[in-house]
Amino acid sequence: MGHDEFAFLLIGLKWTVVLSAVGFVCGCIAGLGVALARVSGNPLLERVTSGYIAVFQGTPLLMQLFVVYYGLALVGLMLDAWVAVAIGLTLHASAYLGEIWRGSIEAVPRGQTEAAKALSLRYVSRMRDVILPQALRISLPATIGFLVQLIKGTSLASIVGFTELTRAGNIISNQIFQPLTVFGVVGILYFLMCCPLTILGARLERKFAASAR
User: Whole-model pTM?
Assistant: First the structure.
């Protein structure tokens, strides 16, 4: 595999990073809304978001991307592959992160909420200043773990013809007929992205476990 082929892989790597970042950031924003709805105490909101989470956790990401791209096209909404994948990853991430953060919010000691109410803090201030900072700390290891899964999940973007790292590797492999070499390099690039995050998540988990004793 020569310089040109490696450069093409790096272009695919760039799009993998961009897709992961967009899906994660937008998923965080939407996931926060899902988490807050899940703990809102409103039965309708809780049922709706519970169903939303069940749908995205109970179906493969591959199928979700397929439905977003081809399903919307059937109703006349033609989306660029990049936009479709970004939407699909955002929906997927929001469901998982919403459930992760719901659990983290509920893991905050009830006394914190009661103390905030005793200080006459309104709901927004209570969540922003008391509950969410503690919940974020609790959720960090699981959130980072999900980000690792999301990065690897971008490889499924090829279902709609989007060229990210895995598809770039497949294209090069079909050209130079060196699949072991090409996908060995692809695997190394994924490892270099995911391994530091995995180590960070494990360290945070050990740190928070030690501080909780």
Answer: 0.90
Residue type at 144? I
How many residues in total does the chain contain? Answer: 213
Q: What whole-number distance in Å separates Cα of residue 162 and Cα of residue 84?
A: 10
- The Cα–Cα gap between 39 and 105 comes to 8
Which H helix or E strand runs over 151?
helix 132-153
Q: What is the pLDDT of residues 112-125, one digit of tens each?
A: 777 777 777 787 88
Q: Do 168 and 12 touch, CB atoms closer than 8 A?
A: yes
Distance CA 113, CA 121 (A): 10
* CATH superfamily to which 3-211 belongs: MetI-like (1.10.3720.10)
Q: Within 10 Å of residue 181's Cβ, how many Cβ atoms?
A: 14
Query: 41 burial class (0-12, 13-18, 19+ CB within 10 angstroms)?
Result: exposed
- pLDDT < 50 regions, the chain: none
Distance CA 154, CA 148 (A): 10
- Tens digits of per-residue pLDDT, 143-180? 999 999 999 999 999 888 888 999 999 999 988 888 89
Name the residue ranges covered by the structural domains of the chain. Answer: 3-211
Q: Which amino acid is at 64?
A: Q
DSSP 157: G
